[in-house]
Amino acid sequence: MSLSLVLLCGGAAISADEAVRPDVAKLLIKAQELHGQKQYAQALGQIAEVEKFAPSNALERFHTERMRAMVLLSNNDQAGAAQALEAALASERGDAADRMAIMENLVLVHYRATAYEKSAVWAERYLAQGGTNAGIANVQIQALYLSKQYPSAATLLSKQVNETIAAKRAPTEVQMRMLASAYQQSKDDANYLKTVKIIARFYPKPEIWQELIYRVLARNDFPDALETDSNRLLRATKSPIKTAELMEQAQLTLKTGYAGEAFDILSAIDRKDPAIAATELARLDQMLGKVTRMRQEDEAGLASLDARMDAAKDPNLLVNAALSLSFLGQHARAVAMVDKALAKPALRQTEIAKLRKVYVLVRADKRDDALALLDTFTGASAEAELAGLWRLFLQSSAELAKQ
Predict the structure, then answer these.
(1) How far is CA 320 from CA 115, 141, 298, 345, in A?
(2) First-to-last CA distance in the chain?
(3) What's the average model confidence in pLDDT over 328-343?
(4) pLDDT, tens digit, for every residue of 105-117?
(5) What CA–CA distance (Å, rounded) separates 66 from 242?
(6) Percent of the chain at pLDDT above 90?
(7) 175-189 residue pLDDT tens
(8) What are phi and psi of 18, to 5 degrees?
């Protein structure tokens, strides 16, 4: 944004005894002409001549400093221009529109001069006095952030973001990233986490999901039994997972009896990836051969599975069987079996069982049912937090599908 300066002279008087003297006006007009010809040094020379007519009155100081600022800006002297603009305002002359324009430009000039604290101060004054340029609010936030006034930047930016979302519009990714950084720099972990979740909603990226899921894994009360469930969300969100980590996930799920899941994990690994070492590739092939055989055995036992589960006394076995059915593509049977388990009072770790039903429903492409089940989770447990991330993932996926 550039200054819009109008040179007032002659009859532009504030009072009967205050006016721009003709000799001063002549010099300022000449300076304006030289400025138009891009002869900036000569224009500044004319302005310097004005000082010979001291003492000047307040109106002359206003016009002289405003002209000086215009020339200095054209000569890319941001700091000098800012000083001249502040001197013009200090004269307490000029009409309201002129003074607002000067304040608006002071925000930008200080910002370009990397005087971010001063830029933020003038932005606050401009907006407090009714300034209507909405862009100044953005400059204020950036100036606060760049001057390391992170809590203040976060407060203003959070208000912007909340208003945007309330208006059913998406905040920009730049806004969200800056807000998250401001909270992080302020060591405000609660609001940082809240902001990262908003980023996941509007701008879901694998690394965002990974960060959110890893935060659940890092909880002191995270139960070991929930690890396979967090791994499922990591894979569903396409979080970046190294081949060695995927093989560990497959090994873990195999220990819990899910050969079909282990087969899915290992089959999805790109064997042509040059980053996979030859020894690791050989181990991958060996594991894949093993889980393939185990998966075939599971398929062979499908016909008798219901009868065996009806005889089972431990309802947790029903949950395990439901997942196995889902990994073999038997989604309807899987949902029915996990419902049977959830109806039994002897079921242990009900919240984990519900999370596993969510996963079965997602695999069955019953996302609305999954969301309805996720809404039943309450409290602040690790299971409830993981359920919240599943809900966020399903909602963001649905929003992306509409775009």
Answers:
(1) 63, 52, 12, 17
(2) 35
(3) 93
(4) 999 999 999 999 9
(5) 62
(6) 58
(7) 999 999 999 999 999
(8) -130, 115
Domains defined for the chain, CATH in brackets = 1-94 (1.25.40), 157-202 (no CATH), 217-402 (1.25.40)
> How many CA atoms lie less than 13 Å away from 260 in the CB half-sphere?
18
**Cα dihedral sign, 181-182-184-190:** negative
Q: Residue 235: which H helix or E strand, with range? A: helix 227-236
**Contact (CB, 8 A) for 160 and 175:** yes
Distance CA 156, CA 172 (A): 15
Radius of gyration of the CA atoms of the chain, in A: 34
User: Quick one: tokens of 71?
Assistant: 């020339």
CA separation, residue 239 to residues 19, 234, 242, 384, 393 (Å): 71, 5, 10, 20, 12
Reduced to 3 states (helix: H, G, I; strand: E, B; else coil), residue 377 is: coil
Catalogue the E-assigned strands of 313-401.
Answer: none
What rounded mean pLDDT belongs to the chain?
89
Nearest residue to 234 (alpha-carbon basis) of 221, 253, 220: 253
**Closest by Cα among 324, 355, 332 to 342:** 355
Cross-strand pairs, 18: 15
Helix 278-300 and helix 243-255: axis angle, to 10°? Answer: 30
- How far is Cα 102 from Cα 94, in angstroms, rounded to an integer? 10
Q: How many CB atoms lie within 10 A of CB 71?
A: 25
pLDDT in tens, 271-315: 888 888 888 888 898 999 999 999 998 888 888 888 888 888 888
